[in-house]
From TrEMBL:
Stored Pfam families: CBS, Voltage_CLC
Lineage top rank: taxon: Eukaryota
Record's keyword terms, sorted: Antiport, ATP-binding, CBS domain, Chloride, Endosome, Ion transport, Membrane, Nucleotide-binding, Repeat, Transmembrane, Transmembrane helix, Transport
Name of the encoding gene: CLCN4
Protein name: Chloride channel protein
Annotated compartments: Endosome membrane; Membrane
Domain spans labelled CBS: 610-674, 708-766
Length: 771
């Protein structure tokens, strides 16, 4: 294959005089299929890079020959930006459609709009002329199911009927979601981020980013979120965006034929996904850089920025929330924060870290149980049961009944004069004459106390149910449920601090900054900080998390509290285990992911890890000029290795190069079809000079120098494993050969490295399942 360090391909004059040039080197045309990889295998980054360099060099040389070639080279240079534009537009459109559909279907569980069936409750009430300011929570056009069916909106009968229909709709939505995933696209389940991370590190999972997965994931994501389960749409939107990226890669050969280049596009697509999920374009780019990407050159940074911009722009044009903002949680606080408040902010960070550690342990234990017991055989039943439990427990509590996004939005909100929420039921001072937006701290009324009880119950419910929900066979994101847990805890803490400041403003901690009659504490800010802390505890994001949070809420002056909470939650969670939820799921599934953040500190050498070990049969090798076609075919049939070293002879074991199994198979198959005289007893040559045919009756030799990689990566047997791990990580190798003074001793594959690392950490090395 081009760029594999192989020799040049043109036949030399002497070969042409012999008349054997075109026979020996029938490989002037590259093979079809060579260079593509098997499913569940790792790509060779170095090789992909050198192939792209070769392609680029060819295009540059040709562009000097004619205007047409010059135009073609310009089109090639622009194709990257075109792909980004397309990804941004499609991702933004899909996100807008998903937002609108989720809004409508979530409200459908409770009632229906009489003026237009396709309106959600909010749209219905906004367009109604009969809604008055005093009854702004009621609107005649929107009817609950009981009122529509029986004519009664109050009373026990109406409540039971509404309850029953709420549960029924939830069960219907989740059943549809899990059935579609099972039948049409099994890869559409889960959040998708662990697999995206693995794919971006150079692993091949065929069909994971396919057209069917894109279609089914989009539809089932709407159903899953609308069913009221404790899951979000943010993680799956990253998967959807990467499917869009993969779809558009197939239109350009530059990306479809090079797995390394394709991954650059997917990194940018992931940024576009987060951009529309949160309305946070810059947060999306940082998320891709910090959390999902493995190889992120500067060029990809610019392209991610562009893709995220186009996606956000498209979403803004659709305007799914009707507030001309990209986000649902936009807030405006009127008071600054004070130094003394850093104490509760840091405590919220500790809570977020503890919740993150608890969630990861609980969720991984439950997922492991699902994998190893009968539970895993009945995914549909599991989804139905969890949905049933969620809906039955969620309906009585107004804070769990509504969609999680609306809940977070209400918790982030500051209590203005026009708020009608229970959380804003404060006792007003009758002789208060202040501007509307700067309401002083007031004593809590009965509504606030009942809201606190309901929030405390909602907190326990969310903490428990999310552990069982994440990882089921439906699309399920983790960002929104984690933020909900943190926002509830934060709001409770915020109200507590606010009431303390009101009743004890003469205490030394409040004395300096909280005068009576001043607006000192904003409970909504505590909810925001709590949300960031819990999300950080689960995912271990830091920089991108803070940027996403302030883009999400528009709270630019609250960066310091957010940073304090994010860092604290990461420290606390790291004390219980280094892996975030995505790394834990990668480990659970046994994907070959070499994490850049893992330290390798053990004193082992390459010779301890290489194969063959002492008890194993010797290494399967090919010789440069004494192996027959039949020998090669037998070797391929009897082993499942990805490639074979080529040596001078079995006695000397001097290394010449490395040949990939797939290329060898295709080359022999093509030669048997296209080249006369190649039979089982033909000798395969990997040498530079032409083989001499001794007698006329000898079978025609087969020259395969072209597919030999003459510069395979080698290390000596005394290279420390620390260095080997670094080489694998930074160069993205598939395998590396071990030599001693030029003699081949063994081979180390990525799987061997991962198994060795697992063994050193006292984990089960057999859990690494793939090559």
């Amino acid at each position: 294959m081009d760029g594999d360090g192989a020799s040049s391909t043109g036949a030399t004059p002497s070969e042409e005089m012999n008349g054997t040039g075109n026979l020996m080197d029938f490989l002037d045309e590259p093979f079809p299929d060579v260079g593509t990889y098997e499913d569940f295998h790792t790509i060779d980054w170095l090789r992909e890079k050198s192939r792209d360099t070769d392609r680029h060099r060819k295009i540059t040389t040709k562009s000097k020959e004619s205007y047409w070639e010059l135009i073609k080279s310009l089109l090639d240079a622009w194709s990257g930006w075109v792909v980004m534009l397309l990804i941004g537009m499609l991702t933004g459109t899909l996100a807008g459609v998903i937002d609108l559909a989720v809004d409508w279907m979530t409200d459908l569980k409770e009632g229906v709009c009489l003026s237009a069936l396709y309106y959600s409750r909010e749209q219905c009430c906004w367009t109604s002329n009969e809604t008055t300011f005093d009854d702004r929570d009621k609107c005649p056009q929107w009817q609950k199911w009981a009122e529509l069916m029986t004519g009664h909106s109050e009373g026990a009968g109406a409540y039971v009927l509404n309850y029953f229909l709420y549960v029924l709709w939830a069960l219907l939505f989740s059943f549809l979601a899990v059935s579609l995933v099972r039948v049409f696209a099994p890869y559409a389940c889960g959040s998708g981020i662990p697999e995206i991370k693995t794919i971006l590190s150079g692993f091949i999972i065929r069909g994971y980013l396919g057209k069917w997965t894109l279609l089914i994931k989009t539809v089932t994501l709407v159903l899953a979120v609308s069913s009221g389960l404790s899951l979000g749409k943010e993680g799956p939107l990253v998967h959807v965006a990467c499917c869009c990226g993969n779809l558009f890669c197939s239109l350009f050969s530059k990306y479809s034929k090079n797995e390394g280049k394709r991954r650059e596009v997917l990194s940018a697509a992931a940024a576009a996904g987060v951009s529309v999920a949160f309305g946070a374009p810059i947060g999306g780019v940082l998320f891709s850089l910090e959390e999902v990407s493995y190889y992120f050159p500067l060029k990809t940074l610019w392209r991610s920025f562009f893709a995220a911009l186009v996606a956000a722009f498209t979403l803004r044009a659709i305007n799914p929330f009707g507030n001309s903002r990209l986000v649902l949680f936009y807030v405006e606080y009127h008071t600054p924060w004070y130094m003394a408040e850093l104490v509760p902010f840091i405590l919220l960070g500790v809570f977020g870290g503890l919740w993150g550690a608890l969630f990861i342990r609980g969720n991984i234990a439950w997922c492991r149980r699902r994998k190893t017991t009968l539970l895993g055989k009945y995914p549909v039943l599991e989804v139905i049961v969890i949905t049933g439990i969620t809906a039955v427990l969620a309906f009585p509590n107004p804070y769990t009944r509504r969609s999680t996004s609306e809940l977070i939005s209400e918790l982030f909100n500051d209590c203005g004069a026009l708020e009608s929420s229970q959380l804003c039921d404060y006792v007003n001072n009758p002789n208060m004459s202040r501007p509307v937006d700067d309401i002083p701290d007031r004593p809590a009324g009965p509504g606030v106390y009942s809201a606190l009880w309901q929030l405390a119950l909602a907190l326990i419910f969310k903490i428990v149910i999310t552990i069982f929900t994440f990882g089921m066979k439906i699309p399920s994101g983790l960002f929104i449920p984690s933020m909900a847990v943190g926002a509830i805890a934060g709001r409770i803490v915020g109200i507590a601090v606010e009431q303390m400041a009101y009743h004890h403003h003469d205490w030394i901690i409040f004395k300096n900054w909280c005068r009576p009659g001043a607006d000192c504490v904003t409970p909504g800010l505590y909810a925001m900080v709590g949300a960031a802390a819990c999300l950080g505890g689960v995912t271990r994001m830091t920089v991108s998390l803070v940027v996403i949070m302030f883009e999400l809420t528009g709270g630019l002056e609250y960066i310091v509290p957010l940073m304090a909470a994010a860092v604290t939650s990461k420290w606390v969670a790291d004390a219980f285990g280094k892996e975030g939820i995505y790394e834990s799921h990668i480990q659970l599934n046994g994907y070959p992911y070499l994490d850049v953040r893992d330290e390798f500190t053990h004193r082992t050498l390459a010779t301890d890890v290489m194969r063959p070990r002492r008890s194993e049969p010797p290494l399967a090798v090919l010789t440069q000029d004494s192996t027959t076609v039949e020998d090669v075919e037998t070797l391929i049939k009897d082993t499942d290795y990805n490639g074979f070293p080529v040596v001078v002879s079995r006695e000397s074991e001097r290394l010449i190069g490395f040949v990939q199994r797939r290329e060898l198979t295709v080359a022999i198959k093509t030669a048997r079809q296209k080249q006369d005289g190649v039979v089982s007893s033909s000798v395969v040559y990997f040498t530079e000079d032409n083989p001499q045919v001794a007698e006329a009756c000898d079978p025609q030799p087969l020259k395969l120098r072209r597919i030999l990689n003459l510069s395979p990566f080698t290390v000596t047997d005394h290279t420390p494993m620390e260095t080997v791990v670094d080489i694998f990580r930074k160069l993205g190798l598939r395998q590396c050969l071990v030599t001693r003074s030029g003699r081949l001793l063994g081979i180390i594959t990525k799987k061997d490295v991962l198994r060795h690392m697992a063994q050193m950490m006292n984990q089960d090395p057999e859990s690494i399942m793939f090559n």
